[in-house]
Amino acid sequence: MSVTLPRTPLYTDHYEYTMLEAALRDGSAERPCVFEVFGRRLPTGRRYGVVAGIGRLAEAIERFRFAEEDLQDLISRGVVAESTADWLRDYRFAGDIDVYSEGELYFPGSPIVTISGTFAECVLLETLTLSILNHDSAIASAAARMVTAARGRPILEMGSRRTHESAAIAASRAAYLAGFAATSNLEAGRRYDVPTAGTSAHAFTLLHESETAAFAAQIASFGTETTLLVDTYDITQGIRNAIDVAGPRLRSIRIDSGDLDVMATGARELLDELGAKDTQIVVSGDLDEYSIAALAAAPVDMYGAGTAVVVGSGAPTAQLVYKLVEVEGRPVAKRSEHKGTTGGRKTAVRRHKPTGTATEEVVVSQGEPEHQTGDKPLQVPLFRGGELTPQPTLDESRELLRQRLISIPWEGLKLSPGDPAIPVIMRHAGE
Amino acid sequence: MSVTLPRTPLYTDHYEYTMLEAALRDGSAERPCVFEVFGRRLPTGRRYGVVAGIGRLAEAIERFRFAEEDLQDLISRGVVAESTADWLRDYRFAGDIDVYSEGELYFPGSPIVTISGTFAECVLLETLTLSILNHDSAIASAAARMVTAARGRPILEMGSRRTHESAAIAASRAAYLAGFAATSNLEAGRRYDVPTAGTSAHAFTLLHESETAAFAAQIASFGTETTLLVDTYDITQGIRNAIDVAGPRLRSIRIDSGDLDVMATGARELLDELGAKDTQIVVSGDLDEYSIAALAAAPVDMYGAGTAVVVGSGAPTAQLVYKLVEVEGRPVAKRSEHKGTTGGRKTAVRRHKPTGTATEEVVVSQGEPEHQTGDKPLQVPLFRGGELTPQPTLDESRELLRQRLISIPWEGLKLSPGDPAIPVIMRHAGE
User: Which reaction does it catalyse (chains A, B) (predicted)?
Assistant: First the structure.
C-alpha cells in the first residue's frame, strides 16, 4: 500500500471521550473489560452475513494515535480536559482482539469480534470498529448473494459513483472479497490490489461525430482486446458498427440499457451471424442479485453491478453493535427491554456433519463448548498485547468465504427470504 | 480545517482514463464539452431533494492533482500509457463549473451541476463528483424530512457507527446542513465546525458497581450540565437514581429503548414529581422521520437519530448521473430506450407566486427562460477558469435550505409518498 491514510482517533463519537474522562477521574478506567461485536439479527430474510473489514480494522487501529493537533482540537472544543489529553498523548491499544476471520460467515449472536483490555483503551475503539465492520460486512453480504446468483460468471463492481468516495474504495474491496472479479475503482486497485477494469462510457461515443468514429478511436488505442459499448443509439446498428470496425475478434461488447435478457439474446444471434462467435457480452444497468439470477439462461458472459452492491442491496448497514460484556471477570448485560444481551466472554465453534455440512454454531459464555467431531473454532487472534498478528491476504479471505458458502446447508444460498442458514446456540458455561 | 485530506485523482473509475487515453490519441480530447449532473427521478415518493456536498466537491477538485507515485501506479498497472501520464502530470481542472447552491432544493431534471471545459479535463471528474453529491445529497434529503418531522425540536446525529468511517464525517456535515443541531462525530466537529455532543453509553453504567455509582462519576466530571442515560436496567429506578445523584437541576436524561412515547410520558411525570421540572428528555433508538413525527405529542425535548439518517432512510444514494450534453456547441444525448436525456447546456430558474411560494422550475436548453416576475436563477459559479470562487459557509447553506423549505407548496413537506413538490418544465431554446 503506497498511500498514507489519516490518523483515526477522531473517527469516534464524542461520548467515548466523555466516558473516558469520567472513568479516569473515578478510577474505573483501568478495570479489565471485554467488549464484543455482534449482530442481534440479520437483515430481514437474509440467511447469512459475511464478516468483512477485519483487515481494514487492523490498519485503522494501528493509526489510532494522537498527534498534538488532535489533542489540541479536543481540548479547544471542550471535549476533554488537559489531564485526559495527557493520558491520550501516548495512547495505543495494548490489549487483545480476537475475530471471526475476514470472509467467515456470521449469524445472529455470533461473537464476531472480542476486544479485551482496560475500559479506557477499549471504549475508544467502539465507533471506528463498528463503522468499518458495519459498512464492509453489509457490502460483502450483499455481494456474496450476487456472486451466487451469477453461477460462476464474473461480476465487475462499478458502483463507486453511487456511494461516498472513500466508502467506494472499501466497497470495491468487500465486493472482491465476496467473489467479484474486478472493480472500476482505481484507488481500490492501488490500495488493495483488486484488479481494475473499464473501457468507455456513452460520453465517449457522444464526443465523436459518429459511433463508428468512437469505436475506431478506442480500437486504435487498445486493439481488439477491449469492450465496445453498443447501446448509445441503436443496439443492432451498434453491434454491426462494432464488428465492422473491430472485426470478429473483438473481445466483448457491453449493453447498459433495455431488457437485458432480450437484448443479450438478440446480440448473441447477431454476433454469431457476423462471425464474432467468441465476442463476449457484458451487461450492466441497475443489476442486483435478483436481476442477475433472472439472466441465468441469457447468453451473458459478464455482469457489471453498481448501485445495488455499494448500498448493500436493501441492507446498507450490517447493524452490528459493540457491547461491554465483562468487567473484572464478571459478566455484565443491559437489562431494559428489547435489547437484552448475553454477558461474558464468548467462545464459539461451528459444528459440522461428517459430510462437512455445517449444522449449528455453539457459543458459550465464560467457558468452552464441549468438543465434538467436526467442530471448527471460529475465533482467531488479531491483536495480542497491542501487537498485530500476521493476517491472511485478501485473496486468502476470498477463498475462505468461497469454502464457507459450500459448507452451509443448500437452503442457505437461496435468494428468497428465510431463516438464518444455521442456528446459533447460546449457552452459559456449565449449562 | 486543520487536517490534510488525500489527493483524489484515483478516486475515479478506470474507464475515465481509458477514454482519456483514446481521446488524446485521436485528438478529440480537446473538444469543448459541457457535462451535466442531474437526477432522472427522486427516490420513490419523495417530494424534493436537497443539494449537498458542493463544498466538499470544491475541495476534492482542488485536490485532484497527480503526484509522481499516482502516475507510476497508473502506468504500472496498465491503466494508462506513458504519454497519457505525461499529459496528466500537470493536470488541473481549468474550466467552469456552475452549481445549484448547497442547501438548494432539486427535482427530477434539475441541472444541479454544469461542468464546462475540454472533454479531457471534464471526463476525469465524473466519478468523484457523483460519489460526493450522491452520498451527501441522499443524507441531507433524508435528514431534512426528519427536521420537518421534529417540528422545531433539536435532533442530534449519532449514526457514525452505522456507516463507513469517512462517510460518517460527510453524513454529519450533511445532517447539520439539513438542520440537525449537532453530531456525535468528532472529526466532523474538527473538519467542518459542526457542534458535537455526547455523554455516555450503557457501557459506562455497566462498568460500575451500580447505576448510582456510574451517575455519580459522570456528575463528578461534568456537573449537572450533562445527560444521564437511564435505561440500562429499569427506567423508573434509573430516573430516581439520576435525580437522587444529580438533584433536580440535572440538564437531561436519555432513553434509548422501549416504546419511546410511553417511556417519555412516564419519565416526564416522574421527573415533575421529583421536582426536576426543567430536566429535559432526550430519546433515541432507531428513529426515522416517521417515528419522530409519531412522537410529536410526547414530552420529548430532543431526538437522537442514527442509522436512518446515515443510510438516507431508505434511499442511500441520490442516483444522480453525470452526462455529456454538449460537444463544440452541439447538443448531444444518448438515444437508446429508457435513458433518454435532453442535450445542451441548461439554464434554470424557479418561478414563484407573488406570495413567494414556488410554482415550477423552468429549464431551457441552449437558451434562457423568458423572464417573469418572481423568477429566481438557480445556478451560481463554483469554478471560473479553474479558480474556485468564494463560497457560502455551511451555516449560510443551512439557512438557505431553511428558507427554501418554507418556499415550496405545503404539500411538499408531507412525509407521505407523493409527486415532486413542483414540476420541472424542460424546454429547448425558442420553444
Answer: 5-phospho-alpha-D-ribose 1-diphosphate + nicotinate + ATP + H2O = nicotinate beta-D-ribonucleotide + ADP + phosphate + diphosphate
The three grid cell numbers given for residue A209, joined into one nine-digit string: 461525430
Confidence at residue A1, expressed as pLDDT on a 0 to 100 scale = 45
Task: Please identify every stretch of chain A with a pLDDT value under 70, giving residue numbers as ranges.
Answer: 1-2, 336-340
In a shared domain, residues B300 and B388: no
Residue A37 covered by a domain: yes
**How far apart, in whole angstroms, are the C-alpha atoms of residue A266 and residue A269?**
5
Contacts of A283 (CB under 8 A, 6+ apart): A254, A255, A256, A260, A263, A264, A295, A298, A300, A302, A303, A304
Identify the pLDDT of residue B429: 86
From the list A201, A207, A339, the residue facing B327 with the nearest CB is A207
Q: What residue ranges in A216-278 does DSSP mark as E strands?
A: 227-229, 252-255
Kindly state whether residues A47 and A127 are assigned to the same domain. Answer: yes
Quick check: B317 and B138 in contact, CB under 8 A?
yes
Find the closest chain B residue to A218 by CA distance. Answer: B22
Asked if residue A211 and residue A117 are part of one domain, the reply reads: no
Residue B284, domain CATH: 3.20.20.70
Among B17, B57, B166, B332, pick the best mutation site for testing chain A contact (most A Cβ within 10 A).
B166
Is B180 part of any domain?
A: no
> Per DSSP, which regions of B180-327 are E strands?
182-183, 227-229, 252-255, 280-284, 302-305, 320-327
pLDDT at B29 over 60: yes
Distances (CA, A) of A191 to A132, A172, B183: 16, 11, 30
A262 in a domain, yes or no?
A: yes
A128/B187 CB distance under 8 A:
no
**Which of A13, A164, A232 has its CB closest to that of B334?**
A232
What residue in B sits closest to A232 (Cα-Cα)? B334
What's the structural domain count of chain B?
A: 2
Residue B279 CA: distances (Å) to CA of A402, B243, B264, B299: 55, 9, 12, 11
Q: How far is B194 from chain A (nearest CA, A)?
A: 11
**Chain A residues within an 8 Å CB radius of B13:** 158, 160-161, 184-186, 198
Query: Which DSSP state fits A5?
Result: P
- Which of A346-355, B3-12, B155-164 is predicted least confidently? B3-12
Residue where a domain terminates, one of A252, A285, A307 = A307
Are A13 and A102 in contact by the 8 Å Cβ rule? The answer is: no
Instruction: For residue range B265-304, list pLDDT tens digits in order.
Output: 999 999 999 999 999 999 999 999 999 999 999 999 999 9
Q: Do B19 and A203 touch (CB under 8 A)?
A: yes
- By three-state DSSP, how is residue A376 classified? strand
One domain, residues A303 and A213? yes
Cβ–Cβ below 8 Å for A332 and B8: no
Specify whether the CB–CB gap between B283 and B305 falls below 8 A: no
Nearest residue, CB atoms, B200 vs list A15, A189, A201: A15
**Residue B119 and residue B33 in contact, taking contact as beta carbons nearer than 8 Å:** yes
Q: How far apart are CA B291 and CA B299, in angstroms?
A: 14
Cell numbers describing residue A49 = 452475513
Here the ipTM equals 0.97
Residue B253 has pLDDT above 80, yes or no: yes
Q: Are A204 and A231 in contact (CB under 8 A)?
A: no
- Domain of residue A118 covers 14-139+315-344+379-416
Confidence check: pLDDT of B27 > 80: yes
| Cα end-to-end span (Å), chain A | 47
Instruction: Say how far apart CA A37 and CA A379 lie, in whole Å.
Output: 12
The enclosing domain of A322 has a CATH number of 3.20.140.10
Is there a single domain that holds both residue A20 and residue A114? yes
